[in-house]
């Protein structure tokens, strides 16, 4: 690994912005100071020219589709897109083909990532109604979390047996991450609209089919079970204002046993966008009302919501162009998540310090990731340089996802990721990728 000196950067870290230099040695932040001189002639010097230096973003929820769904995406293609968006570490979900519900299949994914990933990586282990024995084999120091689908699952991953669910919550020390939507409510709503429209249901009804009630019923039940059993629970992709009453900002994140995430699309889009975007913004849980979107943003700022993620879940454009019941839910987001949040900064909706807290610091704290998420001496040197005033427009020529499309296509962002460093190595610069793979498996301080 190269030794690197980044000079004249506006460093955003732990609630402060200060101008200084950062020296990286053997992939580690070695020194952070107002001024640092090169230690030897072979040091690579980057003049940040006043750009903002952020810790590498940690995305706690992505679907990179490998193995089994590689016509949509691969770990290689999507981790490459991630570093273009300043995401240097990701945690990937278990609903691949085959599903990651055995230790054997989990290790196979780690092997793929070790060979192909541009960004640091971990994977969640998937729970089912009948794999508790496998769950108990998972080493909490080596695996990010246990993922349970309490709605909207693929394959046999819907965990809908109450006795099994309570046994899992009671038996594991793993952080439990959950997708919460009540399946029976959704089935009933779908049947109602299908009776009227057939398969071609207008997509504007998606947030009514996958309703506020479906989300709240499932989230509240999961939280009640976590409180009963003492399990550590993380609720993915909140989408409604009503669910916010289930969470607290009265205690520090390190002490919370029940935490929450919001995704970029639920902060950016609303039900007013379905007419223009159609199934391109069909996600589960659904993008809901302007009121819900505004409430989520307010809760994020007030620390009821702890982290921002993407739920990056690409499908081909041909798949998304199907009628409502046949168009899959999900979309690609890793390349555009940080630029979207920086757009909110330009709109005076959020500070740079808060963006870094929610996208870098808090995922590291919440998942107890070892020595990442901060620009601190002794930590792994994952870092992103951002030019806060470098407008660019998302188009097919600069979209890096394998699926080749983005819900942000045509959007002009005011800020741009110019450099991405993974473990001290420059892997991306101004729309150019370097074929450098110094990604590492994430480890956890548990």
Automatic annotation (TrEMBL):
Any idea which GO molecular function terms this record carries?
allantoinase activity; dihydroorotase activity; metal ion binding
The EC number(s) attached to this protein equal 3.5.2.3
What InterPro entries would the database entry show?
A: Amidohydro-rel, DHOase/Allantoinase_Hydrolase, Dihydroorotase_CS, Metal-dep_hydrolase_composite, Metal_Hydrolase
Q: Would you say which domain of life the source belongs to?
A: Bacteria
Q: Which residues form the signal peptide?
A: none
Domain Amidohydrolase-related, chain residue ranges per copy: 52-427
GO terms for biological process? purine nucleobase catabolic process
Q: DNA repair as a keyword?
A: no
Q: Which UniProt keywords apply?
A: Hydrolase, Metal-binding
* One Pfam family per UniProt: Amidohydro_1
> What cofactor does its activity depend on?
Zn(2+)
The record's section on Gene3D superfamilies has:
Metal-dependent hydrolases, Urease, subunit C, domain 1
Keyword Cell inner membrane assigned to the entry: answer is: no
One GO cellular component from the entry? cytoplasm
- Which family does this protein fall into? Belongs to the metallo-dependent hydrolases superfamily. DHOase family. Class I DHOase subfamily.
Concerning NCBIfam families, the annotation shows: PRK09236.1, pyrC_multi
Q: What is this protein's function?
A: Catalyzes the reversible cyclization of carbamoyl aspartate to dihydroorotate.
What's this protein's name? Dihydroorotase
Q: What is the lineage of its organism?
A: Bacteria, Pseudomonadati, Bacteroidota, Flavobacteriia, Flavobacteriales
């Amino acid at each position: 690994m190269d030794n690197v000196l980044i000079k004249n950067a506006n460093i955003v870290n732990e609630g402060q912005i200060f101008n200084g230099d950062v020296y990286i040695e053997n992939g580690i932040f070695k020194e952070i100071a107002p001024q640092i001189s090169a230690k030897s002639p072979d040091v690579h010097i980057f003049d940040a020219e006043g750009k903002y230096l952020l810790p590498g973003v940690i995305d706690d929820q992505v679907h990179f589709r490998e193995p089994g769904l590689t016509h949509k995406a691969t770990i290689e293609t999507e981790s490459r897109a991630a570093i273009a968006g300043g995401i240097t570490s990701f945690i990937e979900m278990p609903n691949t083909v085959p599903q990651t519900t055995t230790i054997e299949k989990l290790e196979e994914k780690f092997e793929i990532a070790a060979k192909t990933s541009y960004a640091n990586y971990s994977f969640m282990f998937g729970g089912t109604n009948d794999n508790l024995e496998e769950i108990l084999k998972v080493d909490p120091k080596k695996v990010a979390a246990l993922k349970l689908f309490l709605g909207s699952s693929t394959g046999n991953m819907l965990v809908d047996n109450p006795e099994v669910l309570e046994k899992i919550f009671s038996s594991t020390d793993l952080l439990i991450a959950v997708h919460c939507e009540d399946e029976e409510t959704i089935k009933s709503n779908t049947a109602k609209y299908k009776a009227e429209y057939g398969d071609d249901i207008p997509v504007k009804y998606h947030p009514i089919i996958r309703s506020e009630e479906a989300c709240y019923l499932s989230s509240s039940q999961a939280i009640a079970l976590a409180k009963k059993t003492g399990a550590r629970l993380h609720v993915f992709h909140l989408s409604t204002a009503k669910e916010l009453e289930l969470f607290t900002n009265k205690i520090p994140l390190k002490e919370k046993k029940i935490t929450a995430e919001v995704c970029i699309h639920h902060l950016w889009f609303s039900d007013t966008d379905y007419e223009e975007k159609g199934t391109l913004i069909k996600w589960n849980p659904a993008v809901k009302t302007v009121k819900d979107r505004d409430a989520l943003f307010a809760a994020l700022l007030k620390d009821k919501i702890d982290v921002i993620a993407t739920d990056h879940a690409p499908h081909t454009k041909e798949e998304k162009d199907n009628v409502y019941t046949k168009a899959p839910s999900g979309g690609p987001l890793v390349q555009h998540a940080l630029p979207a949040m920086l757009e909110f900064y330009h709109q005076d909706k959020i500070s740079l310090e808060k963006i870094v807290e929610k996208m870098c610091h808090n995922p590291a704290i919440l998942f107890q990731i070892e020595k990442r998420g901060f620009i601190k001496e002794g930590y792994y040197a994952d870092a992103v340089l951002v030019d806060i005033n470098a407008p660019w427009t998302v188009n097919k020529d600069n979209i890096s996802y394998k699926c080749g499309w983005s819900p942000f296509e045509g959007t002009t962002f005011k800020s741009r990721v110019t450099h991405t460093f993974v473990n001290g190595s420059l892997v991306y610069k101004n729309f150019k990728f370097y074929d450098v793979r110094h990604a590492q498996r994430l480890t956890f301080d548990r």
